[in-house]
Design goal:
Pfam family, one: DUF726
Organism: Nitrosopumilus piranensis
Radius of gyration: 17 Å
Subcellular location: Membrane
Distance between the termini: 25 Å
CATH topology: Rossmann fold
Oligomer: single chain
Helix content: 25-40%
Keywords: Membrane, Transmembrane, Transmembrane helix
Main location: membrane
CATH class: Alpha Beta
Largest sheet: 8 strands, mixed
Amino acid sequence: MKHIPRISTRGYYDLKTGKTLKKNNYYLYPKKDFQKLIGSKELTIMIHGLRNDNAGAIAKVRLARNRLRKLNYYYPVVGFSYDSNTTGAHLIKHAKHALRVGQIIAKKNGHNLGRFVEDFKKPSPQTKIRLMGHSLGSQVILSTVEYLAKKKQNFGILESIYLFGASITEDVPSSKKYGKLLQNIVNKKIVNHYAPTDEVLRWADDKKYVLGPLGLHGAIRKPISKYHQKLVKPKNHRFASYATVLNTFP
């Protein structure tokens, strides 16, 4: 199997505390593959969730790419790999702390992924960039939008966003703060695939680790016009299960 191109910030953040260790924006692997992407009609970036090491990140991109191929989407699919395998995330007693650190790191990565989008669009302004995020990946996407929204020239820079099992809160698409940012930065649409049967989001909601996850019951109040949601029934919270129930793209 050919290697999976990815934008990576592995080793940039402390897995125990979320502290920033390196000030670099990102590195590309393999770099020459990204050179070849310049001028592509489209580019889709897959952003994984919590508890994914580098191998896990690669596996998620492969899953996304294979599913999109089945849906007749043949444009390049790459990954965004970040420090989400926070210390103790697999142990119940450390789950809350690990999730909190994961959220800190995910928020900080908005700057990293935002910079990549800006940098890539300079030589390739016509490329439509789509972001797919699973679970905590939704936080990376939201923070990326926040970063991009600081500059007026970035309005409409992202073609579309697709969320699966999103751990950001249910008020985001209708909130004064984020609603406007999403409406400005996303050109076409934001599609949220939500599942009331998602056991991990239900657990996080019950424990009050995430207050009303967007991926559990969808949005509350009146969301922005570019926001759409789809009720899906994945087997469980894993991205593999969400990929299986994805039936249209883009």
